[in-house]
Design goal:
About 45% of the residues lie in helices and about 0% in strands. By secondary structure, it is mostly helical.
Length: about 100
């Protein structure tokens, strides 16, 4: 949360919303780690192509993604910040198109 807050000048609530929605990363393994709605508040582990991921492997994805954001090597996915600022769900950024 601190990385997103500092890098993008977000409030704690905005950074939390990005993390819990999964919109902070395009890496599914990293994004799923913080997504809300998982049982017991534990990390959400998603399956790899073969077998299942371990918590350690998924945490490695999180560390890599947040480190790249902190170093300025990676930006948030397009529309994630705009959605936060407009009060929309960042997992479903408003593109201005209607369904």
């Amino acid at each position: 949360m601190a990385t997103l807050s500092k890098r993008y000048n977000l409030t704690e609530a905005e950074a939390t919303q990005l993390l819990e929605s999964g919109a902070w990363s395009e890496n599914d393994h990293a994004a799923a780690f913080f997504e809300s709605g998982n049982s017991g508040g534990e990390p959400s582990l998603i399956p790899w192509r073969k077998g299942k991921t371990t918590a350690g492997e998924q945490a490695g994805h999180v560390i890599d993604e947040l480190g790249a954001i902190e170093r300025g090597e990676r930006l948030l996915p397009e529309g994630a910040l705009t959605a936060i600022q407009e009060g929309n769900d960042p997992a479903r950024p408003n593109t201005g198109e209607s369904a």
